[in-house]
Amino acid sequence: MRRLNAMFQQAARKDKEKYWNEECARAEVAYRKGNMRELYQHVKKTRTITLIPHVSKILFKIIQKRLNTTIERELPEVQAGFRNGRGTRDHIANLRWIMEKAREYQQKLYMCFIDYSKAFDSIDHDKVWKCLKKMGTPLHLVQLIRSLYRNQVTTVRTPYGDTDWFEIGKGTRQGCILSPAAFNMYAEKVMRNAGLEDSSIGMRIRERNINNLRYADDTTLLAENKDLENLILLVKKECENLGCTSMLRKRSCQQQPQQTSVSRSIMKRSKWLLISSSLAPK
């Protein structure tokens, strides 16, 4: 442990880019869905899991502990993914309760479910570091995390052997405990820039305005009327500004009021599957 402590202290004090510029991660293709024979013919059905050395995992855990203070201070209650003391199941229960109350009081409820396509693979590194700085993350932690991603190289392990090493320019490592924290802060920046917290659009619940519930990389937008489309446009615009246009892929709404340029691009359903939980208006 003393040797590990000395190594981590050295990494924090010295030129971090040179210290961590190593071939230290391997990505393994993991099965997602579909026929295994077609797995390598359809890239969208695969997901890469980064295999990180155990020594690096210890350092990442230390960084995560120090990031928790900033994360809990900056992230709102509507984000339930990757948080201490809460989980996505809590928001599923909250959404069911909102739907029940809307039926009970005969209120209209409009919902839009946003599924970010390849969310963890799409985010830009430089913009993540800017988000961390603006949210008050200690500068030395930002520099340390940035050094772990700068000039990183990896190889993909397949049944036919390992590929050549290549550089990675965007996305977070799936399998790294720092990735959820980085993505949460990135997604929070999108919502802040969209102005959802200050918007009057949403559902009034006990003197509070609720217009979104977040389940890590999934988001539900809520409204009492067709102003839901305005929320969708705000989120879409900010995603484009932050370079994650491809993240907005699948959307579906309940009780869509009328056909517009926005609603035509939304897939309407009478039943939804949200994080393995089935939701229906009745």
From TrEMBL:
Residue stretches making up the Reverse transcriptase domain: 20-277
Record InterPro entries: DNA/RNA_pol_sf, RT_dom
TM region positions: none
Protein name: Reverse transcriptase domain-containing protein
Source organism: Octopus vulgaris (Common octopus)
